[in-house]
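Batch queue: ligand-bound targets. Current item pairs a single chain with glyoxylic acid. No template structures supplied; prediction is de novo from sequence plus SMILES. Inputs echoed for audit trail.
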Amino acid sequence: MFVSKAFNLLKPIPLMSGQSNLAYKFIHQLVASHGRRCHRSVIYKQRYRTCPCSAGRQTISAQTKVMAKEELPGVLILDIGGTQGVLENLAALLKKHFHLITMKEFLENKEEMSKKIQSVFVFECRPTIDRELLESLPNLKVIGNSGVGVDHLDLKMISSFGVKVTNTPHAVADPTADIGMALMLASARRLVEGCQIAVSPDTKHFAVDWLGVEVTRATLGIIGMGSIGYKVAQRARAFNMRILYHNRNRRRKEEEEAVGAHYCEKMEDLLQQSDFVMLIVNLTPETHRLIGKKELSLMKPTATLINISRGAVIDQDALVEALQSKVIRAAALDVTYPEPLPRDHPLLKLNNVIITPHIGTATVQAIHMMAEEAIANILAVLNGQPIPSEVFPK
Ligand SMILES: O=CC(=O)O
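Prediction returned. Tokens below.
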């Protein structure tokens, strides 16, 4: 049952290529091995029709056991507020593998609950974990972050409690790359303004007195060519874009050739040549305010800045100034600081800015995949197995 349900959960997700399949394989292996070890309780064999791994259809069998809720390892799910529908779905997933304990239940019965909690499930980058919480969880072994960015977690402090942190790089790559492309296209073709004109009661006809720019054959500069950046490059290639990238580590030659990407050792070169600059770096002390006044002034006045990483990678005041004085053409931001921006923030008043509320992974499939990847990570830690995606403090 354990295994069949886990695979059933994966069924609605379309087969993905490359790294996403890796996630399936990890989950497959971990879930199957978890099943094999449960030999003391009610065991039965079950046959599965479909394996979601790249090998295609394949039959596997596994032994599983039925566990009472109290026997399952305890996972604390942090209260993220405002996302009740999403939380309900996640809760249903988590309950298949864990004794799920909400923050409310934990606070109401701290003494009993704190002993049971072996893992914490963090939904995306919203809630953080403080020292006080860690001190109250003596049996905590792992914090499973659902999402790739862990800049909201104090990794050194968490590690000092002997607690591991994991993330979900595989599940986030495709949807985040999609939102990067969506923002680039929407900003280039002024989609939001177009929608506003279309729904405006004053509009007599749809003729517009402004023009967009084309993405096709334009130059895209990717700053941060990790797995999301690479997926953006794959998509951009279909638009015949010229692709430049800047990264701490140069990608392998075959990888560059596969997407036609050119490495810029100096970020300045990329900024000067690109029509669209897309930020996809992790937020670290090195990337904090990576793009400020100087960098913006190097960009073409016709260029667009797209940010799908973290708000603090840009000096936001400098960006406001650059957009107001047309140092650059436009910006499209899925991330800002703070999130959300205060209603009177100048960025919200500019018509050459598109802002979305950090929705890079806000899809039915991504939430599901991230939860599965986080669950696989947590189970690996609890079962003493190799951890698919552990994050280490620097
Ligand atoms: O922002 C989303 C993530 O870090 O996965």
